[in-house]
Amino acid sequence: MTKILGKVLSLNERVRRGTDHYIDDLVVQESVLGLEELRKHFAKYGLATKKPEGLDGGRLLGISLKGNTRGHLQMSRGTALSEIHLEPAGLTKRQLFSFCGRLVGHYPVTGWLRPYSSFLKRLGCNGAWNAPVEKEVSSLASELFTRVCQEDPVRGPWHMRPNGTVVVWTDASSLGLGVAVEVDGSVVEDASGLRKESDHSHINVAELEAVGQDVNLAIAWVFKTFTLAVDSLTVVNWMSNTIDRRHRVCTKGAAEMLVKHRLGVIRDTITEYSLSVTTHLVPTVKNKADKMARVPK
Questions:
Q1: Interacting residues of 62 by C-beta distance below 8 A, sequence separation 6+
Q2: Which residue among 120, 168, 193, 263 is buried most deeply as judged by most CB within 10 Å?
Q3: In whole angstroms, what is the distance from residue 217 CA to residue 270 CA?
Q4: Which pLDDT tens digit goes with each residue over 99-115?
Q5: DSSP state for residue 197 in the 8-state scheme
Q6: pLDDT (tens digit per residue) in 170-192
Q7: Is residue 98 helix, strand or coil?
Q8: What's the pTM value of the predicted model, to 2 decimals?
Q9: Residue 154 CA, distance from chain mean position
Q10: Burial label, 39 (beta-carbon count in 10 A; 0-12, 13-18, 19+)
């Protein structure tokens, strides 16, 4: 469907410039293209269209959109939490993974919920898909759902300025890595990943791993100028020396070559993509990626 839609849209230059599509959702920029003109273009190729709806108060890509008091579109969960049910008798592994998937879904911003869901799946990953998980895991799932109903973290701005002020937050812990992309003071995407249980790398190596993911995420957003916010003074000094090339990075110990290798990859990536990167030290309590790398005990 996506290939057919893309081909039909490309047959007319005005239609191509005035639209953007993803699977079966189509966004129309009415300042470039009228809705009636678009419907006639589709009809020429035997394609019917449903009644258009505005973004404010509508849904796009399974995400609900609503304008705030300043007229800026804000995203929220597309599926009501009331539609998600937990079996009171306990969950199977399949039900647990489905539950976590529906909570996190494809939302760009999920805050603390992302590492919680990943950790919950790790606790219940043993056994067959239709086998029940341990009672404690089902209890944790119920506790997690209660908190989500009270403070759902799925929210954020829908639009962002491509030339806005960009800060990419990064953090790492013994449990996982976390990153968050902020544009003009609002987080537009976050991500996290658990470290392998067999991963015993030094925390500074994990911090550099998170920085590398930060840079990759910024490149995916096509940002050329941004600030890396890190709460590790050691990593800030390493990054500053690597980017400015004023001093050699001095480090000793078992992880020396791992540190230098990761710094080399980050430096080459910054050079290859002509990025302008500044590294900034922030306190842990103010690091917006801190919650992406931790769960409560």
A1: 78, 79, 105, 106
A2: 168
A3: 12
A4: 999 999 889 999 999 99
A5: T
A6: 999 999 999 999 999 999 999 99
A7: helix
A8: 0.86
A9: 11
A10: middle
